[in-house]
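Milestone 3.1: sequence recovery, worked example.
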């Protein structure tokens, strides 16, 4: 039987890269002054083939605006006699119209999606994901279970989270009562570097392909000297299509999720037939590259490609073998784990000895490979309430739940939900809980606490903040103006040995730029001293917070929101938790 690597090579050799689904060209412009740019390629395979060539997905790419978008129409509308793809197509077309109608120097995906949503009048609903490259960051807005993965040096380093009301029931934009609006969208930015690859897709891709399979595809195509965005998009779409037709006992991302939700194996095994949209963007430096701007693609003008036969996969292939492995339950012992976190922390209360408890709180459980932090909202002090008590009780309840239930597998969202229910004092706080599950961080986050991930001294990811408005973060509490854990951002991000996780409250991130952290980390790189690094970062944040001149992350954000120029740092409680990702033998 043919293994995955040979299968990819055969597809390339058989002239798989035929010209189809070619983009519509217009408004050709010269290269702008950005230091990075995205080169795109896309491919679409409708589930119903020639019987419904437009399918239910839609997407666009605009090189002029360095922006891509995709949408997945909700198929249940067909039962009501409504074309399930029409809403997705009109939504994506309206995004293009909004982009073209205004001469935008900076693209804000959230604003594009909101205006496109208002202009979409047809019946139906869809997921939506819009990604734009701004400087050296991807600016993302996402609703539902479409999304993207980010690959660096052939390894997946980030996967966007999904938003679901229930299993196989994603958040969806539409005007019907049961639909959502753009207010539920997840918004975030993630740093990128030249050489990175963005693989965006609808759930037809991510329900049928693991990240490890995509890594193999990139490696094989790269070794053949054909690693281009269009090539990779077509190969991934083809492989996802073949996996979707695999009804064997192999485990797919979809069947694995179904098993987790309690569906029996005979009902939910193998792949999931669906429309498959793949957009691949290669991040490259603008210097030395010629960028053809104004490339806009209508995703539904194409000749669909349909494989002639079902796939045959050699189960001895490492990826196929991984698919067929049973799902292991139970906390792995130290020796069974492939990675562990060595964790250290530091806390500097804003008022020092006059209020040593401050308004932040955090916990560390090395046994559960989990830590959390919370920032009490200071405005409660005006009502005579200890603004830190809520944060302290919330974190204490998290730790109690971990040990009381002796959790075999830690699900941060469930821990936060129960801790929130058990926290009765007046007040409110942000919250961030992070657990290491084998080779991934499982994260739940509410508000403007969060973390950065560093690899070889460079920041490769920064969690997004959730704010109702400037300096008013999402906050857990029982008061009517507070939020509950349902607003939390949940996601998983892959990690490797040697990575550093720097988590903190906004007292850290409002006062220290990522570039400053990189300089500090590179001075002690190669050492395993998370406690020392946490102390150094906390002291740097304290020093910066007391400055009255110069630009800080906080003053920069204030200026962007239109506040009168504000210089210097922001005095605040400062919590820093540093986790060094290591093989377990380093901790023995």
């Amino acid at each position: 039987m043919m293994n995955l690597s040979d299968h990819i090579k055969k597809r390339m050799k058989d002239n798989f890269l035929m010209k189809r689904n070619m983009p519509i060209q217009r408004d050709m412009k010269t290269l702008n002054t950005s230091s990075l740019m995205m080169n795109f390629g896309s491919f679409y395979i409708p589930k119903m083939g020639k019987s419904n060539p437009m399918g239910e997905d839609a997407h666009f790419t605009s090189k002029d605006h360095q922006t891509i978008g995709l949408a997945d129409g909700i198929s249940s509308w067909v039962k009501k006699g409504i074309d399930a793809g029409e809403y997705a197509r009109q939504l994506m077309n309206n995004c293009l119209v909004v982009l073209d109608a205004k001469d935008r120097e900076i693209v804000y995906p959230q604003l594009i999606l909101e205006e496109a949503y208002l202009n979409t009048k047809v019946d139906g609903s869809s997921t939506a994901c819009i990604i734009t490259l701004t400087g050296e960051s991807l600016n993302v807005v996402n609703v539902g279970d479409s999304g993207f993965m980010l690959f660096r040096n052939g390894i997946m380093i980030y996967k966007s989270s999904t938003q679901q009301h229930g299993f196989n029931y994603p958040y969806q934009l539409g005007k019907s009562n049961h639909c959502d609006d753009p207010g539920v969208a997840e918004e975030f930015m993630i740093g990128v570097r030249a050489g990175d690859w963005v693989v965006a897709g609808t759930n037809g891709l991510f329900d049928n392909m693991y990240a490890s399979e995509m890594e193999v595809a990139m490696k094989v195509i790269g070794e053949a000297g054909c690693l281009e965005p269009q090539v990779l998009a077509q190969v991934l779409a083809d492989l996802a299509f073949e996996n979707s037709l695999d009804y064997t006992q192999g485990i797919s991302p979809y069947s694995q999720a179904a098993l987790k939700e309690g569906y029996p194996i005979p009902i939910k095994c193998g792949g999931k037939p669906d429309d498959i949209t793949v957009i691949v963007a290669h991040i490259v430096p603008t210097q030395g590259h010629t960028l053809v701007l104004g490339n806009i693609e209508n995703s539904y003008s194409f000749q669909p490609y349909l494989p002639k036969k079902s796939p045959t996969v050699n189960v001895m292939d490492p990826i196929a073998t991984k698919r067929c492995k049973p799902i292991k339950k139970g906390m792995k012992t130290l020796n069974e784990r492939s990675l562990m976190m060595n964790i250290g922390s530091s806390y500097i209360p804003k008022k020092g000895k006059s209020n040593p408890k401050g308004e932040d709180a955090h916990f560390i459980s090395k046994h559960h490979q989990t830590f959390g932090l919370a920032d009490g909202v200071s405005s409660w002090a005006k009502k005579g309430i200890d603004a830190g008590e809520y944060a302290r009780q919330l974190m204490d309840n998290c730790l109690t739940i971990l040990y009381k239930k002796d959790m075999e597998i830690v699900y941060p969202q469930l821990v936060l939900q129960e801790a929130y229910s058990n926290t009765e004092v007046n007040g409110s706080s942000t919250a961030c809980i992070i657990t290491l599950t084998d080779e991934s961080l499982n994260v739940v986050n509410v508000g403007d606490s969060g973390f950065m991930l560093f690899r070889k001294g460079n920041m490769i990811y920064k969690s997004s903040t959730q704010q109702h408005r400037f300096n008013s973060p999402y906050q857990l509490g029982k008061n009517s103006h507070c939020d509950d854990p349902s607003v939390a951002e949940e996601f998983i991000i892959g990690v490797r040995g040697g990575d550093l996780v720097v988590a903190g409250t906004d007292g850290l991130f409002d006062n220290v730029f990522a570039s400053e952290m990189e300089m500090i980390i590179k001075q002690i790189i190669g050492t395993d001293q998370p406690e020392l690094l946490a102390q150094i970062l906390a002291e740097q944040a304290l020093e910066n917070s007391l400055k009255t001149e110069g630009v800080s992350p906080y003053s920069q954000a204030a200026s962007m929101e239109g506040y009168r120029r504000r210089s210097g740092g922001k005095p605040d409680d400062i919590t820093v938790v540093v986790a060094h990702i290591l093989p377990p033998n380093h901790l023995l």
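Confidence is low (pLDDT under 50) at residues 11-32, 289-335. The first helix runs from residue 4 to 13.
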